[in-house]
Amino acid sequence: MSPDEIERYQREDVLGHRPTWRLGTKPQREEPQVWVKDDLGILADVGIRIGAGRRKSEAELRLPPDVREALVTLGFELAKLTLPLRKAVIKAQYKTMVKRYHPDTRGGDRAAEEQLKSINQAYAFLQSRGYT
User: Fold this and answer.
1) CATH classification of the domain holding 73
2) Residue 36, Cβ neighbours under 10 Å: how many?
3) Nearest-5° angle of CA 107, CA 110, CA 115?
4) Which letter does DSSP use for residue 28 in this model?
5) Of 9, 32, 56, 92, whose CB is crowded by the most CB atoms within 10 A?
6) Which tens digits make up the pLDDT trace of 52-81?
7) In terms of pTM, does the model score above 0.85?
8) Distances (CA, A) of 103 to 22, 84, 88
9) Whole domain around residue 18: which residue ranges?
């Protein structure tokens, strides 16, 4: 390397060899360079948009994971769920799911019985957390 190349390399090394531009101006590229692959959309939670990450709903952002899982088990779509949750809405959805998956209405189907058990557990969990 020549002395000029060594000096340029050392200057760029201070910034980690990352591209820079003047304050208040945008980079010349239209598409930002994607260095991170965010398949799960984790960075979308904090408002960073990389690639095709989807924006999460208010319920997905504000509710704890165990509560979200219980609501999904009860048949709620988190993207369409509005907060705050009303007790009557959760109870009505629970009754609908119980009627749908009760073994007597399904002719004694074992899969429906297992689904009903998970629905009852999810509802009991929500009750213990004060949602119903």
Assistant:
1) 1.10.287
2) 10
3) 105
4) S
5) 56
6) 556 678 888 888 889 999 999 999 998 888
7) no
8) 67, 32, 25
9) 3-46
